[in-house]
Structures are given as structure tokens and as C-alpha cells.
């Protein structure tokens, strides 16, 4: 796999609340940080765009259990848990996309009314490569919407983790059926 100028690497929600010790910790999430940094280095060297999204909810967000939502309180705007993973190394020119900031609406996809589709099209981006968290939630929704928007869409399996194993397996099947390229990565890569 090698990146080019008309590619975008999109890192979804690599935030402390989704990692060990966080409010909605995902198994193995910390392990993907070095792998993501490696992808960022490769993308940057090739002149590909780097995008990082962050889940950024107001207190009392509709997705929280206290309001009947599916999740514990997580990624509250400005909190420790909403910060990017301490190891994540983003280039200065990375585009940060904030999502989930409306009290009564959730946004799983980085393309859901964020303007990112238009920005990437404007830049001539043809392929998008997705990694980060969580495979069965925000990576899933983003990948499906990327295909709809006409991008050649790749998901880097060794640089993502699902919230549930079953959800991850179902997501991989769904993505494959939707024409998304699921990259299994190098079997010799010990960071996978
Ligand atoms: C996410 C659950 C709740 C995600 C965000 O980034 O995948 N998952 N909010
Ligand atoms: Zn959320």
C-alpha cells in the first residue's frame, strides 16, 4: 500500500475515552496508536491529506444513557477523555473534524453534515483510507458514507478495533458487500 497526493488518510476518534481507562474503553485500542502514527508518516511523506475526527459531545448529549441513549457519558467537549490519545502524532496541517456536538443529534460518520465530502472533492481526493475507532460504529458509518459519496474507500483493519467482536465481524462483511476494500495488512507486522 502506498499513498499519493489524491488520497486522504482519515483517523477516526482516537480519543482517551475510547482507550484503556476511558469511559467507553475499547479492547486493544491503545495498540493501534503506533500503527496509526506509521500510516500518518507514510501519508504525510506522500503528500496525502491527513484528517482526524473527534467525538465532541455536550454534557447531557442524546447518546448518553441518562437520556436513554446507547452509551455511557463519553468524550464530553473539553474534558480529559475527549483529548486525542497521548501518543497520536498529527502533522500541523492535519484537518480536525469535530462531530456529535449538537445536544439532540448524534453523528457517527465523519462525513455527516461536516463539509468533509465537499472539502475532499474540492481538493481532488479520489481515495480515502480509514482507521481509528470504533470499527463497528464510527468507522463503519464513515466508510459506508464515503462509498456513497463516490470515494474509493479502504479500511485499515490492523489500525482499527470494534466495540464488540460480533459487531466487528458483521461490519467487515457489510463493508465488503458495499465495495469497500478491507485491508488486512501485513501478517508479519507485529503492531497489527
Ligand atoms: C463512537 C460510540 C459512541 C465512535 C462514538 O467513535 O465509534 N462510538 N460515540
Ligand atoms: Zn459518541
TrEMBL record:
Q: Short name of one Pfam family for this protein?
A: Isochorismatase
Q: Which Gene3D superfamilies match?
A: Isochorismatase-like
Q: Which organism is it from?
A: Methylocystis bryophila
Its BP terms in the Gene Ontology are: pyridine nucleotide biosynthetic process
Entry superkingdom:
Bacteria
Tell me the organism's taxonomic lineage. Answer: Bacteria, Pseudomonadati, Pseudomonadota, Alphaproteobacteria, Hyphomicrobiales
Write the protein's name: nicotinamidase
The answer to keyword Transport applying to this record is no
What molecular functions are annotated in GO for this chain? metal ion binding; nicotinamidase activity
Similarity remark: Belongs to the isochorismatase family.
Q: What is its EC number?
A: 3.5.1.19
Q: Which UniProt keywords apply?
A: Hydrolase, Metal-binding, Pyridine nucleotide biosynthesis
> PANTHER family in the record, alphabetically?
LD05707P, PYRAZINAMIDASE/NICOTINAMIDASE
Amino acid at each position: 500500500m502506498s499513498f499519493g497526493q489524491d488520497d486522504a488518510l482519515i483517523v477516526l476518534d482516537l480519543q482517551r475515552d475510547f482507550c484503556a481507562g476511558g469511559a467507553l474503553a475499547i479492547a486493544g485500542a491503545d495498540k493501534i496508536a503506533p500503527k496509526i502514527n506509521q500510516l500518518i508518516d507514510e501519508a504525510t511523506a506522500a503528500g496525502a491529506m491527513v484528517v482526524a475526527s473527534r467525538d465532541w459531545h455536550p454534557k447531557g448529549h442524546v447518546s448518553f444513557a441518562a437520556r436513554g441513549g446507547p452509551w455511557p457519558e463519553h468524550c464530553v467537549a473539553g474534558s480529559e477523555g475527549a483529548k486525542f490519545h497521548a501518543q497520536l502524532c498529527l502533522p500541523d496541517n492535519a484537518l480536525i473534524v469535530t462531530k456529535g456536538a449538537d445536544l439532540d443529534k448524534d453523528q457517527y460518520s465523519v462525513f455527516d453534515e461536516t463539509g468533509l465530502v465537499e472539502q475532499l472533492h474540492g481538493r481532488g481526493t479520489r481515495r480515502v483510507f480509514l482507521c481509528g475507532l470504533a470499527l463497528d460504529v464510527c468507522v463503519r458509518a464513515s466508510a459506508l458514507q464515503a462509498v456513497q459519496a463516490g470515494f474509493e474507500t479502504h479500511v485499515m483493519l490492523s489500525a482499527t478495533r470494534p466495540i464488540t467482536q460480533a459487531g466487528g465481524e458483521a461490519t467487515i462483511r457489510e463493508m465488503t458487500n458495499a465495495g469497500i476494500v478491507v485491508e488486512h495488512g501485513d501478517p508479519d507486522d507485529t503492531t497489527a
